[in-house]
Amino acid sequence: MSYIKDNIMDIAKEIEEICHRMGRDPKEVQLIAVTKTIDAERIREAIVHGITDVGENKVQEILSKYDDVKNVRWHMIGHLQTNKVKYIIDKVQLIHSLDRFHLAEEINKRAKQINRIMDVLVQVNIAQEETKFGIDAKDVYGFIDQIRGLEHIRIQGLMAMAPFVEDPEEVRIYFRKMKQLFDEIKGRNMPGVEMKYLSMGMTNDYKVAIEEGSNMIRIGTGIFGKRNYQK
Ligand SMILES: *Cc1c(COP(=O)(O)O)cnc(C)c1O
């Protein structure tokens, strides 16, 4: 039996168990397999075992695997340089890492050129870490107001990365804050803004994230094992 299959089945079981306990429908939690450093063959194996969505944090990696990995939706989950938007604008389903106005303008421009509307999430730097990208929680409203008029962008939710800690209980508070912000924005019913996805939770902390209301989790190590950055 393949370890990738086993891991995917274990995670599906966890999602089901947590949702059952929380009174949520497991189908509302979308699992994204994070495939950075993972070769096309292993990604295809994950797809055989039920993965429908994959996430990459580098444009170059999407481009190098794109033709070898079919029947899957691609997500851009990492920091996106403005000058690379043009390479992925026709390839990705959702950009999770919108974190500055200039980037929004570029996505809007490139999406318009190919006559599509690009779905995006606003990345929030929820713990105000200097090492992380994202908008401060207090500035999210202003940022959304600034970009929601861009006609070829559709704001579909929020994304966050919690601080790296050993015990995920320590970051529960940040997931809770994200859910509050998400619900608040949703409650305002702003034209052009749909709060549909709350993308948070990785291998180490996804269980807590789901308990706190995440509906999109991004898991790499938990599916494919430890990453090898050497190659
Ligand atoms: C690498 C990465 C993940 C997955 O991390 P794991 O700990 O391997 O599950 C999730 N989100 C982003 C933005 C990442 O870069």
Q: Can you summarize the main beta sheet?
A: 8 strands, parallel
> Which hetero compounds are present in the coordinates?
pyridoxal-5'-phosphate
The share of residues in extended strands comes to 15-25%
- Report low-confidence residues grouped into runs of 5 or more: none
- Give the distance, in angstroms, between the N- and C-terminal Cα atoms: 26 Å
Query: In which order are the strands of the major sheet placed?
Result: 7-6-5-4-3-2-1-8
The rough form would be described as: globular
Structural class: alpha/beta
Radius of gyration: 17 Å
Give the gist of this structure.
By secondary structure, the protein is α/β, with parallel strands linked by helices. It has helices spanning 3-22, 40-48, 59-65, 85-88, 101-113, 140-147, 172-187, 206-211, 221-224, and strands spanning 30-34, 53-56, 73-76, 92-98, 118-124, 153-160, 193-199, 216-219.
Report on this model:
Helix content is 38%, strand content 20%. By secondary structure, the protein is α/β, with parallel strands linked by helices. An eight-stranded parallel sheet has the order 7-6-5-4-3-2-1-8. β5 (118-124), α6 and β6 (153-160) form a beta-alpha-beta unit. The longest helix is centred in the N-terminal third of the chain and has 20 residues, at 3-22. The chain is globular. The site of pyridoxal-5'-phosphate has 14 residues, from β8 and α9. Residues 34, 36, 57, 77-78, 161, 202-204, 218-222 line the site of pyridoxal-5'-phosphate.
